[in-house]
Write a structure and sequence with these properties.
17% strand; globular; Rossmann fold; six-stranded parallel sheet; single chain
Length: 185
């Protein structure tokens, strides 16, 4: 198996940390991106392979650009991208503020768009790349009290589908996974 260069957003905990671990165990070098530097350091210390800790707020376009640039300067172009950074909020539509709405769109839709826009040229130029965007079951169905979250996740699923079609013949794949929350029984 060929060792690849991976970048994982939201890598400081949960699904992002698990993806980073799986990629590292598979022999890939993994750039860990999230806001919390100490949490990223803990994840990096738990990985068996080479990692790069890059504290970054994905809402900041220049910081996101700098994270990709740091990976490229250190190892080369990103070949595997896991877009996991995200958040949810709960409020009825009438109690969702403009700021809440915009934050969900910025974090769950615009930041993934920027990641794709930044990573895809290098992947298509190389003729190989893998992108996985962690969406949500809310990408497919609505629910009460999550209008902003659901709208942003519906949008990211459309973004993924479009990106997949645009690069379909280039050796690059773009997919989404749509995990659901678990409820105790």
């Amino acid at each position: 198996m060929t060792s690849r260069i991976a970048l994982v957003t939201g890598a400081s905990q949960g699904i992002g940390a698990a993806c980073a671990r799986a990629l590292s165990e598979a022999g890939h070098r993994v750039a860990l991106v999230a806001r919390n530097a100490s949490s990223l350091e803990s994840v990096a210390a738990s990985l068996p392979g080479e990692s790069l800790v890059i504290p970054t707020d994905v809402l900041d376009p220049s910081a996101l650009e700098a994270a990709f640039a740091q990976v490229e300067a250190t190892w080369g172009p990103v070949e595997i991208l896991v877009v996991n950074a995200g958040a949810a909020m709960s409020a009825t539509i009438v109690k969702t503020s403009d700021e809440d709405w915009q934050r969900m769109l910025d974090l769950n839709l615009t930041a993934p768009f920027r990641c794709l826009r930044r990573a895809l040229p290098g992947m298509t130029d190389a003729g190989w790349g893998r992108v996985v965007v962690v969406a949500s079951i809310a990408s497919k169905v609505g629910g009460p009290r999550i209008a902003a979250y659901t709208a942003s996740k519906h949008g990211v699923l459309g973004l993924v589908r479009t990106a997949a079609m645009e690069v379909a013949r280039s050796g690059v794949t773009v997919n989404a996974v749509c995990p659901a929350t678990s409820t105790p029984r």
